[in-house]
Amino acid sequence: MTTADTTADTASVKTKEQQMAWYVLRSTFNRSQKAYDMLTSNGFHAYLPLHSVEKVVKGRLKRIMKPLIPNLLFVFSEENVLKEFVKANKDTGYVTLYYDHFNHSSKGTNKLLTVPAFQMDNFIRATSIENKHTMVVDPKNIRYKTGDMVRIVEGDFIGVVGKVARVGGQSRVIVTLEGVCAIATAYIPSAFLEPYQDS
């Protein structure tokens, strides 16, 4: 392989990466895990936020993993590849594309809803931590202490970036995916926070 071939291959990989984004998919009722399994078994990089809940099974209390956000999952892909896959598998009924109803293409049609990489990385960090106090909150009901962004610098949620709000009588950090959802961490002491500025 020549240097020119190597450079062309590297450029091709970079171009493909630039065309990839985090997309939101909606799964049918109680089939998020099946949808996730179907996507990952077909080579997609997907994320399904889970949390443990207590459930009585055959008279015994057990902890089981359930989706944190009902019926939603996230896929990192090229748009045309994802669209083709969902279209080809529409008969399974597991997943549909999630559209952004506030953002239109040049043709006037709704675009697929995407999540910026930083928001998604931060969301994954916040929802990957097993803590029973992490919860989905309605963004309309949140009253932020200030509009300033903070970073958590100590404790289980170290590295998570968001805004401070009072939820359930406690000071928590809110992580928002615009147009999708908001997640509240467990209680975070003010000593565990530092101001954050997006560079």
What is the CATH architecture descriptor of the largest domain? 2-Layer Sandwich
Distance between the termini: 39 Å
Proportion of residues in helical segments: 10-25%
Structural class: alpha+beta
Model regions low in confidence, pLDDT < 50 over at least 5 residues: 6-13
Radius of gyration, in Å, reads 19 Å
Main sheet characteristics: 6 strands, antiparallel
Strand portion: 35-45%
Whole-number average pLDDT? 86
Give the strand tally.
15
> What's the number of structural domains?
2
Spatial order of the strands forming the largest sheet: 10-14-13-12-11-15
* Shape designation: globular
Number of DSSP helices?
4
Look up the CATH topology of the largest domain: Alpha-Beta Plaits
The level 1 CATH classification of the largest domain is: Alpha Beta
Secondary-structure element order, N to C: HEHEEEEHEEEEHEEEEEE
Task: Provide structural commentary.
There is one protein chain. By secondary structure, the chain is α+β, with helices and mostly antiparallel strands. The chain folds into 2 domains: 3-115, Alpha-Beta Plaits, CATH 3.30.70; 118-195, no CATH class. It is 24% helix and 41% strand. The chain is built from 4 helices and 15 strands. It has helices at residues 3-19, 32-41, 79-88, 117-127, and strands at 20-27, 45-47, 50-57, 60-67, 72-78, 95-97, 99-104, 110-112, 114-115, 135-137, 144-152, 161-167, 170-177, 181-184, 193-195. The chain has a 6-stranded antiparallel beta sheet, with helices on one face. Strands 1, 2, 5, 6 and 9 form a 5-stranded antiparallel beta sheet that branches. A two-stranded antiparallel ribbon has the order 3-4. Strand 13 (170-177) and strand 14 (181-184) form a beta hairpin. It is globular and about 50 Å long.
